[in-house]
Amino acid sequence: MPIPLTGPLSYGMQLPIQSQSALFAEPWEAGATPADLAEIARTADRTGFAYIASCDHVAVPRRLAAGMGTVWYDPVATLAYLAGITERVLLMSHVAVVGLRHPLVTAKQYATLDHLSGGRLILGVGAGHVREEFDALGVGFEGRGALLDETIDALKAALGPEEYPRFAGERFSFAGLGQLPRPAQERVPVWVGGSSPAALRRAAVRGDGWLPQGDPRDRLPAQIARLHALREEAGNAEPVVVGALTEPLYVGEPGWSVGRRTLSGKPQALAESLRAYAAMGVHQIQVRFRSRGVSELTDQMAAFAAEVAPHLDR
Predict the structure, then answer these.
(1) pLDDT for 105-140, tens place per residue?
(2) Can you tell me the distance from the alpha carbon of 44 to that of 86, in angstroms, rounded to the nearest whole number?
(3) Going along 132-215, which residue ranges are E strands?
(4) DSSP-assigned letters across all residues of 12-45
(5) pLDDT digits (tens, 9 = 90+) for 232-262
(6) Three-state SS string across 258-291, please?
(7) What is the CA 61 to chain-centroid distance, rounded?
(8) CA distances from 170 to 102, 106, 239 (A)
(9) Global pTM?
């Protein structure tokens, strides 16, 4: 079930509730329940969303708690739970800070998730940015970029089809160690998150997809062109899935203040605005909806799928 590189824009969403940063969480999420999270996932599954995504932070220091919050569900546990109550929607870590863990541990967790879900995993990875998190886990913060590069290489080996994967690098080396079950997919897609020059190069050289982090529309075309140039320079001829995070959305005319950056209005007008991403070379958009409760959110998701998505032809 790969993300298509032709045809209409695909659309997915990072789940609410499972991460509650002050930058994007709605007030109602603080009192939300696992049943609410399950209903949102089922709605995504039922209405044709390509994927649902879960974030990754092990622990948040006090100095960042006011902005980031401390509600960050474990992505493997969260996605495994949601895999059991959905059927087709893809399951993405957006993003897993994989450098915090040994790649064999990460491979065991995500291979099991892919196996149990019937091959629905997208492994989104990123370098991380919280120094105290790295310090607490005994991982060097300053070298996290090089660490992530090697971890991706090790994970590609460990998530491949071989029962006894082999890898030899500067930090990690393993051979003769069997891991079953194997992923259901022959090749688990690895999407690289981040918009820094290093992240863009990492996506170009090592990624199957790129997840930009907040690039505004006017910056995306140059970033996408750079991604393809770096990929060609590296001799990587495999296609790459290019993503974008859209502005917050509200389908219809809201009767409350949804913020000046929110795109709202009639479905066809929203679709026309979002098609601009396709014109830049984007294949999938990650959408987020303004809402005052779980029912309004699932109504917005259903309205988007029924009324906006049919007009997303590129």
Answers:
(1) 999 999 999 999 999 999 999 999 999 999 999 999
(2) 9
(3) 167-168, 173-174, 190-193, 209-211
(4) EEE-SSSB--TTT--GGGGG--HHHHHHHHHHHH
(5) 999 999 999 999 999 999 999 999 999 999 9
(6) CCCCCEEECHHHHHHHHHHHHHHCCCEEECCECC
(7) 23
(8) 13, 18, 28
(9) 0.97
